[in-house]
Write a structure and sequence with these properties.
The structure holds two protein chains of two kinds.
Chain A: H1 2-20, H2 22-49, H3 54-74, H4 77-85, H5 91-94, H6 102-132, H7 140-170, H8 172-193, H9 202-208, H10 212-232, H11 248-254, H12 261-273, H13 276-299, H14 307-321, H15 323-328, H16 343-357, H17 359-371, H18 378-400, H19 404-407, H20 411-434, H21 446-462
Helix pairs in contact in A: 1-2, 1-6, 2-6, 3-7, 3-13, 6-7, 7-8, 7-9, 7-10, 9-10, 11-12, 12-16, 13-14, 14-17, 14-18, 14-20, 16-21, 17-18, 18-20, 18-21
Chain B: E1 5-14, E2 17-27, E3 32-36, H1 43-50, E4 58-63, E5 66-67, H2 72-78, E6 79-82, H3 94-105, H4 110-120, H5 136-148, E7 154-158, H6 166-181, E8 185-190, H7 193-199, E9 202-207, E10 210-216, H8 217-222, H9 227-240
Parallel strand pairs in B: 3-8, 3-9, 6-7, 7-8
Antiparallel strand pairs in B: 1-2, 1-4, 4-5, 9-10
Helix pairs in contact in B: 3-4, 3-5
The chains are: A mainly alpha, B alpha/beta.
Bound molecules: adenosine-5'-triphosphate (ATP) and magnesium ion.
The site of adenosine-5'-triphosphate has 12 residues of chain B, from strand 2 and helix 1.
Chain lengths: 468, 241
């Protein structure tokens, strides 16, 4: 039964490599490797300014988040199976006509995603560090250990989301209860013991003091998460003959002041009815951001005053910009092929829906400000988050048009994205650190954002839409 | 009177496959034009180019006076299209989808028009179900309604009958014949030759992207031939050269 797995991996490879050429795609892990390798040489420098352990902490945090994001995008239970594949003829879908159990197909799919992202992200990164380690005086065992614990961080993120999404597919109420209980428990524990719960994150413990006992415990915990998730996973497809009253026409009236009310109304119904709005908000937004916030709060002492809030605001902006992928994942251009809709019109409508969704990051950053006792800075923090989000989304639209999800893996595209977004992030982090009210300068990002979106419309109208 | 569709040396190349190879064709107003050809002969590619869904590699095509490359949106605004793979959006109901189409095409009084279509194609009981939960044939009915609801001058329809039961097929054939009687034009692709013979006034035969023949169906029968045997002999001969 290994054939199905191999075929799925090949398929994933082909999807990506036909999109932008085998070479450009194959270079992706090479680039991650390069970044890690070069970054490693900066470590001695960074460690002079950072208290020991902080760097390890943030890298583990990033990989945990990577796992959560990969899980959040890829594994939202059967809903995503349906959504991602629709009527498309991917193996995960067509294999249903073979004499195989659905759970088996799904497991293959999950493992394929894991392996795939492992080779794309985790391994090249760890490998870059390993290669650099002799030159920066780090023992090889340490860098091997880092590779191991980073892998664990990644898998923890992935399995946690897998479990939560399996619960979500069964019962949304139970999921909420679970999340609230877990959040409550963590906060109570943190308050009572005065320690940041992040310090109990198994891969971190393992990294700071390796023992086979700890290793076994971490592995068992992972397997347990994965096992429970698989057991809970419900392969029944959720088709129904439920009847809906017309929600489109009222929504259309309600949105009539927007540039493309009909398309925006459709997007909103897509998000709402697929469960994508709630699911994505939890798995691709709140969860990763809360994790980041927890990890960052450990670094609080080294930030300037209010630095934590504004750094969180900037990261919220970057994560919020990925909401553009939520609104584009439902339809290919094919669904509009029989209507008089240009790609540029679609881009306008997707940006409009994206704009409506920006309420979520505003609420999030406002809550963080209140929770951390910085209510006075709600306004500049929210402005910073939203401006960064629109700017990063603008760059994404310009670079990848209506298919941001896949194009991320084109090295040229990703590289340009990282440079363009990186410059803005560095600049505005610096400004906000210097003076919280300088965050208002971020409003000026509206100009390049607008420019990129206008360029995107011209650029993607000229491309043959048959390609996606 | 100028033709509704006019192409000159239209070419579509996919890598080293020539899907459509130098096709020059014209379709007159009021005809029910059948585009025939075996699997992979380029019918769908032809319709995609004529509706601005994909750009020709070479050649020109004018549809209702608009250039499909320069002005694809105006072409799509004027015509009705049934694509080969029916794809109404998963998370809208049938009724909402027609309202959506109505909003985009700015069709007045869309609710009443949609209801008429639900009755005509006999799926009023399904109109409040999400498109993803509809049967294949019902989705095809919806795509049919979507293509004709604004009563376009020209409809380009790719294999419209393929998922319909015999009763629906009959109904749809009758609708198409009536439609061209009102002076409108239909460009239809199919490999069901009997259907083409029954309803089409003109036809063209594609084979491996090349145009083998164009003519009037009536001409064939006047000469004592029939479309299926004409098609088979032509395509078999075409395969040998
Ligand atoms: N997007 C594409 N990329 C590459 N090749 C394509 C693409 N679309 C079609 N082709 C090729 O172009 C040729 C014509 O395909 P087309 O779909 O137009 O045929 P068709 O006449 O509609 O066939 P059928 O009767 O099976 O629907 C085929 O050889 C096909 O493989
Ligand atoms: Mg076809």
């Amino acid at each position: 039964m290994f054939e199905l797995f191999v075929a799925m991996v090949k398929e994933e490879w082909r999807i990506h490599s036909t999109m932008f050429g085998t070479l450009s795609f194959a270079l992706f892990p090479v680039m991650i490797f390069g970044i890690a390798c070069m970054g490693s040489f900066l470590i001695p420098l960074v460690q002079m300014t950072l208290p020991p352990g902080y760097l390890t902490l943030s890298i583990h945090g990033s990989y945990l988040m990577l796992g959560i994001m990969v899980g959040g995008f890829g594994l939202l239970g059967n809903e995503v199976m349906n959504r991602r594949f629709g009527q498309a003829s991917l193996l995960a879908y067509s294999a249903r006509s073979l004499p195989l159990k659905e759970t088996f197909i799904f497991l293959n799919f999950v493992i394929k995603d894991t392996v795939y992202y492992f080779f794309l992200w985790v391994l090249p990164f760890g490998f870059g560090y390993i290669i650099a380690s002799p030159f920066i005086g780090v023992p090889l065992t340490d860098s091997l250990l880092l590779l191991l614990t980073l892998t664990f961080s990644f898998l923890f993120g992935l399995c946690t989301v897998f479990l939560l999404s399996a619960v979500y597919a069964r019962s949304k109420e139970v999921l909420w209860l679970l999340l609230i209980a877990a959040g409550f428990g963590i906060v109570v524990h943190a308050v009572l013991s005065g320690t940041n719960p992040v310090l109990f994150f198994p891969p971190l413990l393992l990294n700071s003091s390796f023992s086979w006992m700890n290793f076994t415990l971490s592995s068992v915990l992972l397997l347990l998460l994965f096992g429970v998730a698989t057991a809970l996973f419900n392969p029944e497809s959720v088709g129904s003959t439920k009847r809906y009253t017309d929600a489109f026409t009222p929504l259309l009236k309600c949105l009539s002041s927007l540039p493309t009310p009909s398309l925006a109304a459709k997007d909103i119904l897509d998000l709402r009815r697929s469960g994508g709005l709630i699911g994505q908000t939890i798995f691709s937004f709140f969860l990763p951001l809360l994790v980041i916030w927890f990890f960052l709060s450990l670094l609080d002492p080294i930030f300037p005053p209010h630095g934590l809030l504004f750094l969180t605001a900037i990261i919220t902006g970057v994560i919020a910009s990925t909401m553009y992928t939520w609104v584009t994942m439902f339809d290919t251009f094919g669904s509009y092929a029989c209507l008089p809709v240009a790609v540029s019109t679609l881009i306008t409508s997707k940006i409009t829906t994206f704009g409506l969704l920006q309420v979520i990051p505003v609420i999030f950053i406002a809550s963080i400000a209140v929770l951390s006792g910085e209510t006075a800075y709600i306004f500049p923090a929210a402005i910073l988050a939203i401006s960064v989000s629109f700017y990063a989304a603008g760059v994404m639209v310009w670079l990848s048009g209506l298919s941001p999800g896949v194009l991320v893996y084109d090295v040229k595209v990703l590289f340009t994205y990282l440079i363009l977004v990186g410059i803005a992030l560095t600049l505005f982090t610096g400004l906000a650190f210097a003076n919280p009210y300088y965050a208002f300068f971020a409003l000026s990002l509206a100009i390049p954002a607008w420019f990129f979106i206008q360029r995107a419309k011209v650029r993607w109208d000229a491309v043959d839409p048959g390609g996606f | 009177m100028s033709p509704v569709i006019e192409t000159t040396d239209l070419v579509k190349q996919y890598g080293d496959v020539c899907a459509v190879d130098q096709i020059t064709l014209s379709v007159e107003k009021g005809s029910l034009f059948g585009l025939l050809g075996p699997n992979g002969s380029g019918k769908t590619t032809m319709i995609k180019m004529l509706t601005g869904q994909t750009k020709p590699t070479a050649g020109t095509a004018m549809v209702l006076g608009f250039d499909v490359v320069a002005d694809p949106i105006n072409v799509r605004r004027q015509v009705g299209i049934i694509p080969e793979q029916e794809t109404p959006p998963s998370f809208l109901t049938a009724r909402e989808y027609l309202a959506f189409v109505g909003a985009i095409r700015k069709i007045p009084d869309i609710g009443a028009k949609a209801d008429r279509w639900f009755d005509l194609l006999d799926f009023a009981d399904k109109r409040d179900i999400l498109c993803k939960d509809l049967s294949r044939g019902t989705r095809q009915k919806l795509m049919f309604a979507q293509a004709f609801i604004h009563e376009p001058e020209l409809a380009l329809i790719d294999e419209p009958l393929i998922n319909f039961d015999p009763i629906m097929q009959d109904l749809v054939k009758e609708y198409l014949v009536d439609y061209v009687r009102k002076g409108k034009t239909i460009f239809l692709s199919t490999h069901i030759l009997e259907v083409a013979e029954e309803i089409c006034s003109e036809f063209a035969i594609l084979h491996k992207g090349r145009l083998l023949h164009t003519g009037r169906v009536a001409e064939l029968s006047e000469n004592g031939g029939d479309l299926p045997s004409f098609f088979l002999s032509l395509v078999r001969k075409g395969s040998h050269v």
